[in-house]
DNA sequence: CTGAAAGCGCTTACAG
DNA sequence: CTGAAAGCGCTTACAG
């Protein structure tokens, strides 16, 4: 256009391709898209078009296509950052989401918020044509706020802490998982079992507390309020509350075992214990929840409850895609009932039988 | 909610807003965007327009806007997954990227590839208007391939392993970092210092090897080829190569200290040593590189070289934004020279003075 | 100061 | 079978 050489090379358009091949832009579109109607393009013409496109490095402009197709081929993921650390839980789920999205030829874009309550409008604001659907990751909001989500965008939630009408939730049997790992600790001879919970009131945190209490009671152990500490699912806070507890209690009173509401908190606890010279698992057994990468990169490796985070992320995409297809017509209908995944206990080096149960064995051998 | 169950709720358009307010779509646009020309909208009209927009839940369609503005307000991040595990290095960098992008009001979309060499075309394919610029994370490709990157999209690389023309690279002084930590080991009395490197040939791996060698030579130690092992930056392979080396060597020949090319490899080495009853740091000192979260969650905590990964991610966004602004006119010019961050040695419990230098001290006291 | 028109790049539906 | 036209939703540039 401009005879003066401009710095920014402009991307080639369909019109450019058509011009180079001596056909109309429309013919180029038909040939490149292999639409039904492209049968009418003669093989030679089509070859010329493909060649021109290749030579010009033609890429269909996604915004233009989206405008007419009303489809961006992109799914959004909304997540809140607590503090400023992206946690590993999120990464595992994102892993599954990206993988599944790629399988459907969809892009994934991540939106981060500070706070579900205040930012729910921003979640809605993002539904402006840039995404075809949205996955809400561990959302916490009121149902009134949830009602403000735009109707024209389909939503799927994962680990939702509140039920929103018409939003399918993907979850795991957290209460069962918590129960099973605490039951295991009891079987191994531990009696004074501490739980470092998530924020009280959140569905996920409460379910884990319920499982913990149930397993204790089944084992004939009366839950000790002094051994139930509330934290917020982060390593930093896990470390903090553990140190505070240790400061307030004499060394002989440390628990036999500690069950943390998630792996991140367990990492913080591990740091706190190490800094006070309390050995894991020699002095206290420790376990987490989630089976994130980090549970395998601690030394000792962390016993935990596995929820198939990656699969759960993938499932969220599957369901979201069904809803998107349904909206765009043609797709089969979808279900509104929550999807519940099983959990399983993963025993690793951080948990050993209560030492008193084997006091004739030298301490060294406990850690192999 | 909707009793009519109108499935296909369509998002409100500017025309809808204009109609509701009794003005043209263009007037609505001017009022809502507060453009210079919007001064001409009377306060009453503007109020009516804002009210109508609010009531209709109007959101400017991003695809339409992008089409005319040639701007998506989205930056892409390209990353290769080795195996199927997203590693912690990536998480830290992504943290910084998302944070900075949010600050500039930009979205971040992550593209994952299997292999830089084969997928470089796919990196280009993604430059189709959906992103305004791209960050390449630790890319490995040939400069010929790099030349195929679309000219119309600005790129910034982080930890690039090959230099591509016109692509600014963000890096850290890895050679210096490796040198400094090995120098420290020498100062502490260690002589037989092993290095478990990254894949030979990769820029980052070579720089660390060079720093290692230089520090040895400065300390009057002739590098021993038997103590230089090549691995691939993963925990799994780090464990494997360490075990192989131990199998091939008699116990008295184990090194005084081991410097791993990254933290992940060091975790694997830690496992390998533990499985053979070799104590860290009692029998051998160990250190990594990167200062990822995992270096703080091992017992003992891992000495390492810190590179400010998060800041580096943020810097990549800063520079990319400059280039994007420059292309869209108006912005200040940008530099093509690489940006080099400082590294620093972080000493932690996994490194102690060479025991022979303090043989009168009981082993227990070494680990506090 | 105002509104009508053109155009971003593409696809779909419709005449010829 | 083919090309010309309309339109997706928005903003910019241009007449009145």
**If strands are numbered along the chain, what order do they take across the biggest sheet of chain A?**
2-1-3-4-5-11
Structural class of chain A: alpha/beta
Fourth CATH level, the homologous superfamily of the largest domain in chain A: Response regulator
Q: Tell me what the CATH architecture of the largest domain in chain A is.
A: 3-Layer(aba) Sandwich
Task: Write down the Rg of chain A.
Answer: 27 Å
Number of strands of chain A: 12
The portion of residues assigned to helices of chain A is 40-55%
| Helix and strand element order of chain A | HHHHEHEHEHEEHEHEHEHEEHEEH
Strand content of chain A: 5-15%
- Briefly note the CATH topology name of the largest domain in chain A: Rossmann fold
How is this structure best described in words?
2 copies of one chain form a homodimer. By secondary structure, chain A is α/β, with parallel strands linked by helices. Chain A has 3 domains: 14-60, 434 Repressor (Amino-terminal Domain) (Orthogonal Bundle); 72-166 and 310-339, 3-Layer(aba) Sandwich (Rossmann fold); 174-307 and 346-366, 3-Layer(aba) Sandwich (Rossmann fold), CATH 3.40.50.2300. In chain A, 40% of the residues lie in helices and 14% in strands. Chain A has helices spanning 14-21, 25-33, 43-56, 62-69, 88-103, 116-125, 143-146, 174-187, 203-218, 235-248, 263-275, 309-327, 363-366; strands at 74-80, 107-113, 133-137, 155-158, 168-172, 193-197, 228-230, 257-260, 285-287, 304-306, 339-341, 344-346. In chain A, the strands form 3 sheets. The first copy, chain A, has a 6-stranded parallel β-sheet. In chain A, strand 3 (133-137), helix 7 (143-146) and strand 4 form a beta-alpha-beta unit. In chain A, helix 1 crosses helix 2 and helix 1 (14-21) packs across helix 3 (43-56). Chain A is elongated. The termini of chain A are far apart. Chains A and B meet through helix 4, helix 5, strand 2 and helix 11 of A and helix 4, helix 5, strand 2 and helix 11 of B. Chain A binds a DNA duplex (16 and 16 nucleotides) through residues 13-15, 23-27, 29-30, 33, 35, 37, 39-41, 60-61, 63-70, 129.
